[in-house]
From TrEMBL:
Domain Reverse transcriptase: 103-208
Pfam families associated with the record: RVT_1
Membrane spanning residue stretches: none
PANTHER family cross-referenced by the UniProt entry: PHD-TYPE DOMAIN-CONTAINING PROTEIN, RIBONUCLEASE H
Biological process, per Gene Ontology: DNA biosynthetic process
Originating organism: Bombus terrestris
Entry protein name: Uncharacterized protein LOC125386440
Length: 228
């Protein structure tokens, strides 16, 4: 399945060079950030799982207009997909209605989002063989890579990312108690909707959240403003 999808992707590349450039740029970023690693194995190696991949284009996006999506629901030669074999984990996500009610109660509000949230969390090295992909180099060689981080497209990804975020809150609670509470209660997936009663408190909270960047989280888009 992964090889067939790659062949289809390469046919599209032949007709749309701009699309090919954008796609290659995304995967090159994966390599540069250490989110993907080349492995020396033949693509016929059945040890693990090969994720087919394709592009989703969102022209309105202010950050990444082309996103590479990995298909964990594609069946393998056994008839089962990786998602069929994964335990998705319990629901950890806070209820959006409760988050919004708390957000509207603040005099000053802040919004945050974690850039590339899933890719902030590493997968154990011994489990990365289940996240292999095929990719054709610029020279035309079909090569095998493995994804090193939690991967969008896998059924367990939402649980893993949110669970890691909550663990970060527990680990950093002694240093950043207010920011830790935001991580526990005021995040909806990768977006935070929170605030405070005074401008000084809101700005102090913003500072605490910013310091969590030292914990390998890319928090961006802080906004401090009076609520109407």
């Amino acid at each position: 399945m992964a090889l067939k999808r790659l062949a289809s992707l390469n046919r599209r590349f032949q007709h749309d060079k701009h699309f090919e450039t954008e796609y290659r740029t995304v995967l090159q970023e994966y390599l540069a950030l250490g989110h993907m690693t080349k492995v020396n194995t033949n693509h016929s190696d059945a040890n693990g799982y090969y994720l087919p991949h394709h592009a989703v284009i969102k022209a309105s996006s202010q950050t990444t207009k082309l996103r590479v999506v990995f298909d964990g629901s594609a069946p393998s030669t056994t008839g089962l997909s990786l998602n069929d074999a994964l335990h998705t984990g319990p629901k950890l996500q806070e209820d959006l209605f409760c988050i919004l009610i708390r957000f509207r109660s603040h005099q000053y509000v802040l919004t945050d989002d974690i850039e590339k949230m899933y890719r902030q969390f590493l997968v154990r090295p011994e489990d990365r063989k289940y996240q292999k992909i095929l990719w054709r180099s610029a020279s035309g060689e079909t090569e095998t890579y493995q994804l090193n981080t939690v991967t969008f497209g896998l059924s367990a990804a939402p649980y893993l990312a949110i669970r890691c975020l909550k663990q970060l809150a527990e680990d950093e609670d002694h240093r950043f108690p207010h920011a830790a509470q935001v991580l526990q209660r005021d995040f909806y997936v990768d977006d935070a909707l929170t605030g405070a009663d005074t401008k000084d408190e809101a700005c102090a909270l913003r500072t605490e959240l910013a310091k969590l960047q030292s914990s390998d989280q890319s928090l961006r888009g802080h906004l401090c403003m009076p609520s109407s």
